[in-house]
Amino acid sequence: MSKGLFSSTLVIYSCPAVAQSQVETELEKLGLELKWAKQSLVVGSLFAEISFRCSLAQLDEIASKLAQVGSLHFELTQHTKHSGVTYMFVPGLGLFRGELNAAGSLTLTEDKLQSLLDQAAGNHREFTRLLRLCLGQSWDDILEPFRAAKYSDNVLLLNRAG
């Protein structure tokens, strides 16, 4: 990824009210000020979203500091002209980091895919499990209701069959 300041977005889908000041303190050190709103999926929880410009090192720092809070559900993304990076955090799963292509899709290198094949040792289910882990699917599954609620409090969510 290139050096410089790039377009970045932080979405805190769920922040317990008791953690609000800790989050604000960490982000204010980096010159970021959040505007909070009530969040409808978790009682007593808040939502915030902010777009800003920062370096990859600053993005890494933000992700690390927010993950240390431990009780948040958040996504943090940065896009350059040709690539990007995304972080997702969910309590219990921890911090996920993925590389993005220009279209915003997660990418895996040939070496990573070969490593997954080697680890799976011909077991299709194990390969699928490892691939889903590398693509952050467990994080996506948990964050999807929060993403939907961001756009409408009246969204009906259906579970995927299979």
Global shape? globular
Largest sheet: 7 strands, antiparallel
Radius of gyration: 17 Å
Number of helices: 5
**Share in helix:** 25-40%
Distance between the termini: 37 Å
Low-confidence segments, ≥5 residues, pLDDT <50? none
Q: Provide the residue-averaged pLDDT.
A: 91
Number of strands: 7
Give a description of the structure.
With 162 residues, this protein is an alpha+beta fold. It has one domain. Helices cover 37% and strands 30% of the residues. The chain has helices at residues 20-28, 56-69, 110-120, 124-134, 137-151; strands at residues 6-16, 37-38, 45-54, 73-79, 83-90, 94-101, 106-107. A 7-stranded antiparallel β-sheet has the order 2-3-1-4-5-6-7. Helix 3 (110-120) runs antiparallel to helix 4. The longest helix is centred in the last third of the chain and has 15 residues, at 137-151. The radius of gyration is 17 Å and the shape is globular. The mean pLDDT is 91.
Any chance you could write out the topology, listing elements then pairs?
Elements: E1 6-16, H1 20-28, E2 37-38, E3 45-54, H2 56-69, E4 73-79, E5 83-90, E6 94-101, E7 106-107, H3 110-120, H4 124-134, H5 137-151
Antiparallel strand pairs: 1-3, 1-4, 2-3, 4-5, 5-6, 6-7
